[in-house]
Amino acid sequence: MDAWWGLVLGIGAFLVWWSFWPQPERRERSRQGWTARTQDQLVKAGAPAVTPAALVLTSVGVGVVTWIVAAGLTGSAVLGLCFAVIAARGPSALVSMRARARTAATRDLWPELVDSLASGIRAGLSLPEAVGQLAERGPRALQEPFARFAEDYRASGRFHDCLDALKERLADPVADRIVETLRITRDVGGSDVGRVLRTLAEFLRDDARLRGELEARQSWTVNGARLAAAAPWLVLALLATQSSTMEAYDSAAGVAVLALGGVSTVVAYRLMMRVGRLPQESRVLR
């Protein structure tokens, strides 16, 4: 009993001592987390109304349905689980492919958009008017977000809030740089915004040309990685039609082989993609 009271007294003394030290402020959760990155991918893929949670639920649903169907066709729950894991990756892989394709398609449009913006400012338009007129004079693939910006600004008149909404709709590092340039110009003023935008347009053209050349040279590495990752599992799908194969993989040794093969495939695929694909610019100004 004395030991118990001594422990309680010690804990109380420690808490009193701890209260005298200032607690570090909790850092806000990084906006570059999985949820933010996935939402950006969905916006780039043309599905801004879909949430990351909905994407996860869709992947789980596809995996469950695939497991039921594959297990019923092959008669092996283990093989069905393998194909279910592969199928569950399908929705997110489709989103990533669409996002990369749309990003590559709009990469050559940003310099044209910046030129149109600089022309509007040089013509004497105010910053909100210059941004809003991109809904008509900007590249067709990028007109819709700027049309919504013009509607928001006419409704609220809040330039900074409308710029924030525009950044979320575009979900692109280049758009972030353009928006922040306009925001600083609006806050502190300056007559060099036209020259800054023209310099940015030249930089974007050089970057798009260089990325296009490098991606063309490294495309074989990316395609080879995909083929190498898919080939063993395609062979497994063909072997799954034989009863002897199902019996072999239903054993403990078979499960170990499938698990080792799955881990090896993921590691090798990620490594090849890291080597063969150019790094994507992150949204540091989001």
UniProtKB/TrEMBL annotation:
Please give the Gene3D superfamilies that the UniProt record associates with this protein: Type II secretion system (T2SS), domain F
Q: Which residues cross the membrane?
A: 6-21, 42-61, 67-88, 220-240, 252-272
Q: Which UniProt keywords apply?
A: Cell membrane, Membrane, Transmembrane, Transmembrane helix
Q: Which intervals of the chain form a coiled coil? A: none
| Location of the Type II secretion system protein GspF domain | 114-239
Give the top-rank taxon of the lineage listed in the UniProt record for this protein: Bacteria
Pfam families from the UniProt entry: T2SSF
Q: Which GO terms describe its cellular component?
A: plasma membrane
Q: According to Swiss-Prot or TrEMBL, what is its membrane topology?
A: Multi-pass membrane protein
List localization entries: Cell membrane
From the Swiss-Prot or TrEMBL record, give the protein name. Type II secretion system protein F
Tell me which species this is from. Demequina activiva
